[in-house]
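Technical note accompanying the year-one report. For the benefit of new consortium partners, we illustrate the data format agreed upon in the data management plan: each record pairs a sequence with a structure-token string. No post-processing was applied to the example shown here.
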Amino acid sequence: TLPLCHSASLFLSGLAFLVLSRPFSHPARTIDMDPPCVECTEATRLCALSPLDGRYAFATRSLAAYFSEFAFLRYRLLVECRYLMALPSLCPSLPALFPPLRLLLSPPVGSASTVSPPSADAQRYPFLASSPAPSLVNALETLATRDFTLRSALRIKHLERTTNHDVKAIEYFLREELSRLLHSSRTPACSPLSAAAAAAPSSSSSLTAPHAVVSTQAPAPAPRDHCMYHRALAPSSSSFSTENSRPHIENPPWHPLLEWVHFGLTSQDVNSVAQALSLRDAITKEYLPAIRDLVLTPLQDRAQRWIHAPMLGRTHGQPATPTRVGAQLMVFVERLHRQLSSIEEHVYYAKFGGATGGLNAHYAAVPSVDWQCFADRFLSEYCEGLERLQCTTQIAHNDSLAALLDNLRRVNVILIDLAQDMWMYIGLGYFSQRTTVGQVGSSCMPHKVNPIDWESAEGNFGLANSTFTHLSHKLPISRLQRDLSDTTVMRSLGVPLAHSILGIRCVGDGLCKIQLNKDRLREDLERNWIVVAEGMQTILRAHGYHEPYEMFRKALQNRSELSRQDLHALVDSIDVSPELRDQLRALTPFNYLGKAARL
């Protein structure tokens, strides 16, 4: 038995790893994470409250890079950093009016790597003369991407204990980090900015192009530990976790620049943009690849493979007109294609307009700047093409988000339909399931091979849809200009997406296991020649025979099965020409299949 303190340590270590166990994906940059230590992972799974983080963590933990508390902090810090960098770049008049912003201007390629202020500004802001602008821009970018660690997140949470406000804590953290970078630049020998300037080529200020990313870590790397959590907390010269370890300078000379952090913004400007970015990343990098690779491609492959396999149709649970196995699978392929195309084409919107949508504080502080144009360009150029909602309250109205969630819910409805059909086909014996050595289907019935993949898929899609429905109903509603009832709800965006991906994996596993039982399909068709009566009475109607439907109805209704001999005896009793009789007798359950749709 582990001591209590050691058990708690393992639990916290594992919890930290689950948050950080997958690289944080971002255009042109990736963060490498070490594999977990087995003890931490297993301890965390056993102690997790939610099965998404426990039993099913193997299938869902990649979403932690987008929806965990760690990820939400990181995305919001990224928005704050890019906003700070966009101010002097998108508003050329601002650096002239407010010289400290010149620190955030990257000079043109081939020019000097430092900002040279006019003499009057140099006297008022002496720190401008020796601060390398390109390296500061670069350091800010990496601060919210590669250099954002568990230690960074813990520092923000430490600040939040005082502020009781998460976005304000992020703002204070960014001010601390910016102050540290500027303080370090005054001692070039040990400056992370100097190292960045030496290693990074000059680049434009646009963040949509790939940036040179350089590390602000000290040259000597920390020793590798067996656990990501332990390694993240290892001492380093560029990370701090407590107030005592951070440089504290009373009234630093660069404080005018710090005042532009979170300038004029409200929390929802940052939250809305961060959530739009994280949701889009999760959809494009996790959800769409999963459903295409695990469901759509194998489903279409099996539809092509079995397009000519005849199968007894069933309407209202009773034998009906024959069809093809592949044709019925293509029904789901077509439905999924339509819904996934809508998801791929979805436009992601964000709110960025100040406390009540009018950018009041921005215009009051600097009325000469077209802040509406700035806000549009900021989301488009610095936030990977997000569209800005033009008319808002303090929060986004989320109509577009609700439409996306409804779209995701419809995909799940289609997959529930597929799972239920496959469950019934397996029960009818049309499909058998491939098993693995040692697999157990029942704890007491050794012969059983249960369709658990399809059942698990149905359950997960149902859970996902109940949450999607609540989100799409709740998020577009807010009292007057703002209430906080959406905050907790928005933090749960990853939950239905995780259940959806878990269901998708179950469908993928189920598709990999099914095998077509052609003998059972033929046996069922042989017992049900009655189903070609539809075709026969239609042929007779085309040739003017009097009320053939009524004739077949009286002869066949309430008969559960009909053999070929019985049906042909009925055909022979009909007064028609020999040619027409031969045409009727040629109709069988194996060729009365219509024409396969173009695949």
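Partners are asked to follow this layout when depositing records. The longest strand covers residues 318-324.
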